[in-house]
Amino acid sequence: MGLLEGKNALVFGLANDKSIAWGITQAFHREGAKLGISYAGEMLERRVKPLAEKVGCQWVEECDVTSDEQIAAVAEKAARHFGRVDVLVHSIAFAGRDELTGPFYNTTRDGFKNAMDISVYSLIAMTKAFLPILNPGASIMCLTYYGSVKVAPHYNVMGVAKAALESSTRYLAYDLGPQKIRVNAISAGPIRTLAAAGVGGFRDMYKHFADMSPMRENVTIDDVGNAAVFLASDLSARITGEVLYVDSGFNTVGVQMTGKENQEKSE
Ligand code: NAP
């Protein structure tokens, strides 16, 4: 029997088969969850529908999270289709390309507002909209990155947004704890996705990560999917307000060694 058998799980932020949301969706499917998928633009429908079919998902809904009306409408549709929901995944972020290169002090007011609205406020708005149909024991999760706590060059306003997202995770976990609803974040190492392609210097960061992480390996969407299964399942019943790192241990290292010494260690 799968770990998510009998659970209704909604995944927001599926763009294509490289998306972290796709790794999570597939892992949830493998563990027996009944799935719902939400995506952003109309253009994406062509890419998302065939993926949904692969996992037997019959609920595929568009939702632009900058719109309270669209969030309310999608929650209403979920209520009609599923009745109640056990797992809500927020795998959504956005910052303009100009904000993700060059110095952080060049961040524009509009760029700041946009990044915070789409990447942070949306988690709060979605939580509020879905709360009436969440079962006790339900699990909400979002995706974050280490650039929230340490400087990752070029990550800029998205690092600030991820810090706010992690803080929002803790405040939401506090609010929903008495209802036995949990809220956690997964902090994933760099993965080649559409969103990541917009971050200046991502290619170097990706390569550096494989050289420097204790496990000397990059992270895959399957790794994140498996961690998401744990957070979605009853195995993590008393875990809330946490940031779970899925990063081959990268965040645990204080001093990065380069060259010969690092090479010797990996041999
Ligand atoms: P992705 O496939 O591009 O997913 C990002 C998703 O956010 C896309 O589906 C995108 O839709 C959606 N989105 C953007 N604006 C939206 C809006 N207004 N309304 C609704 N959805 C919107 O990239 P990803 O890397 O899997 O990103 C998923 C999450 O993982 C993000 O929170 C990201 O910050 C986080 N993360 C990524 C990495 C990494 O290295 N890839 C590492 C740690 C954390 P559109 O394509 O239509 O814009």
Structure, explained:
This protein has 267 residues and is an alpha/beta fold. The chain has one domain: 3-Layer(aba) Sandwich (Rossmann fold). Helices cover 42% and strands 16% of the residues. It has a seven-stranded parallel sheet, sandwiched between helices. Helix 4 links the parallel strand 4 and strand 5 (134-144). It is globular. 43% of the residues are buried. The mean pLDDT is 95. The chain binds NADP nicotinamide-adenine-dinucleotide phosphate. NADP nicotinamide-adenine-dinucleotide phosphate binds at residues 13-15, 19-21, 39-41, 44, 63-66, 91-94, 118, 143-145, 188, 190-191, 193-196.
Residue windows where pLDDT falls under 50 for at least 5 positions: none
CATH superfamily: NAD(P)-binding Rossmann-like Domain
The unique ligands bound to this protein are: NADP nicotinamide-adenine-dinucleotide phosphate
**Number of helices, where a helix is a run of at least 4 consecutive DSSP H or I residues:** 9
Give the overall shape. globular
Helix and strand element order? EHEHEHEHEHEHHHEH
Distance between the termini: 40 Å
What structural category arises from helix and sheet content?
Answer: alpha/beta
Give keywords.
267 residues; Rossmann fold; seven-stranded parallel beta sheet; 16% strand; binds NADP nicotinamide-adenine-dinucleotide phosphate
